[in-house]
Amino acid sequence: MVEINASGTYYKELNQKIRAAVEKGEKEIVLKNVNGQYYIGAGFVGSTNITIEGVPGNDLAAFMDGPTLRIKSNAQDNISNTMNSGKVIVEGNAGDVLGYGMRGGKLHIRGDVGYRVGIHMKGNKKQTPTIIVGGTAGDFFGEYMAGGILVLLGLDSTGPLVGDYLGTGMHGGMIFVRGEVDKNLCGAEVGILDLDEDDHKILKDALTDYCKDFGLKLEDIMKKGFKKLVPVSLRPYGNLYAY
Amino acid sequence: MNHNYQKDISGCGLTGLISRKRRPISGSEIVKSLCLMTDRGNGLGAGYAAYGIYPEFKDFYAFHIMYDEPTVKRTVEDYLKSNYHIEKVEEIPTKAVKAIPISPMLVRYFVSPLKERLAGEQEETDFVVNTVMKVNSEIDGAYIFSSGKNMGAFKGVGNPSDIADFFRIEEYEGYIWTAHTRFPTNTPGWWGGAHPFTLLDWSIVHNGEISSYGINKRYLEMYGYKLALLTDTEVVAYLLDLLIRRHGLSIPVACLALASPFWKNIDQRDPEEREALTALRQTYGSALLNGPFSVLFGHSNGLVGINDRIKLRPLVAAIKGDVTYMASEESAIRAICPDPQKVWAPRAGEPVIVNLED
């Protein structure tokens, strides 16, 4: 295990230090006193575990391929942009545009998230990117979603569970929302369905890992029902410019 | 084409704070907060606004003026002398900074309009606004970039720490601060184009772009405002002056005009509210700000933060004790307030309004 004190360190220098540690074969890295440094974990490959104390800057884990990052506090915007594999665990809240174009791996957030989470997320036969949000989400949750799984839990939240334009432009993937979903908040192409057996299995698998990360009980979360959101219309805007 | 081109991906950065108890806070705090976000700008503009910095001249309008050359200074001073009592004139204190080899002449004047120059029932504030518009649009090479009481803006072309050193920001103490690092996209990076933009006590810092600039500009021109600073943000300062000072809208209502709810949301409200919001949108359709923005605006009684209606730019707020903080990034707040009692991300279009307690 190696500790790196990030206090007052410019992001380029900090990321060089982390890379040097990874290249030396370090498997456990703890970053102390992080505040605002951009691009932590960006483009990293391999299986290193990095624990971050303090608020990391934007573009955390962008293009990441393998490592696990655990953030002990809040995190900012643009986490896991185009991430391919690995995991990001955020113990606090996180900001806007999380998982943009994410194509694999996991993003687990204990608290609330901002706007445009899961935008353009995609999957393929081999990879299912997964984002699980413990708290609430802002507008445009799952916008233009093309694949993967988004889960919104609304645990111990007081405010609205999710914002407007839920799943707008969605054409693939699945969104699971714990609680009821207002059709008025959804994009035109979004269908609200009950979960079938396969869905339950997928959701439970995803949540089992999530619960392990935060010391939560799966049965507590499953006490409340879920809805599944999927695209049901292929061309909902086909006539938008027709006249 | 060079495919090794390294693009710096950035946007503007802003930060602000207010002590609701009017506790003086050193400029070094806001500098530290802004400098954490230096990379959100590109060195083509930075600035600071502070309230409560001129207590000994609090009854006078503090004009901060930049001059391109000495003859224009004489023209402006002749104009000021025939219209204002000038309590004090001094160069704005600056320090030589290597990264800022050239700057305009920077002078501040503490003034009050001569009573006999006010036409009839004319408000003093209208007279001052007219002066600012006249100088900025008619006198080439002279710009009044700050004109409020007991407040001032300090700005120029440079990065946040150089501009702070240059204007000796750390020597001021204020109970409200706003600050900005600029990444100009559509308009030139010049001294007058740096943020904050001010008029009377209003000061604006802005991240984003006002795509409704043309509509807003033509609307403001009908009320005598002259848009002379070549930058979209200027309209926000003047719209606040028009809506709040001249039309008497409250701050929450003015925010509803600038970032009004979408029609589909208005339609879902109670009939009474629907009618009010419809009237507001119809009346102030040309004041609606379109495009991505997060904005902080300071005024003599408080600080307001607001986003565009779909939150296309970031804004985070925090509270500790008597101080409320707002910034583009949470880390910029934590740079000067490591343990806030509450941190939150304001929702789109919903203003955070903080007033001084007295």
Task: Label the overall shape of chain A.
Answer: globular
Q: Give the termini separation of chain B.
A: 60 Å
Kindly report the CATH topology of the domain at 13-54 and 159-355 in chain B.
Glutamine Phosphoribosylpyrophosphate, subunit 1, domain 1
Main sheet of chain A: which strands, in order across?
1-2-3-4-5-6-7-8-9-11-10
Rounded mean pLDDT score of chain A = 95
What is the topology, as strand order, of the major beta sheet of chain B?
8-3-10-1-16-15-17
Helix content of chain A: 10-25%
In percent, how much strand structure appears in the residues of chain A? Answer: 25-35%
How would you classify the helix and strand content of chain A by structural class?
A: alpha/beta
Question: Could you spell the SSE succession of chain B in H and E letters?
Answer: EEHEEHEEHEEHEEEEHHHHHEEEEHEE
Number of helices of chain A: 3
> What is the level-2 CATH architecture name of the domain at 93-231 in chain A?
3 Solenoid
Provide a descriptive summary of the structure in words.
The complex is a heterodimer of chains A (243) and B (358). Chain A has 243 residues and is of the alpha/beta class. Chain A has a domain of 139 residues: Glutamate synthase, alpha subunit, C-terminal domain (Pectate Lyase C-like, 3 Solenoid), CATH 2.160.20. Helix content of chain A is 15%, strand content 26%. In chain A, strands 1-2-3-4-5-6-7-8-9-11-10 form an eleven-stranded mixed sheet, with helices on both faces. The longest helix of chain A has 18 residues. Chain A is globular and about 55 Å long. The mean pLDDT of chain A is 95. Chain B is of the alpha+beta class. Chain B has a domain of 239 residues: Glutamine Phosphoribosylpyrophosphate, subunit 1, domain 1 (4-Layer Sandwich). Chain B has ten helices and 18 strands. A seven-stranded antiparallel sheet of chain B has the order 8-3-10-1-16-15-17. The longest helix of chain B has 15 residues. Chains A and B meet through loops of A and helix 10 of B.
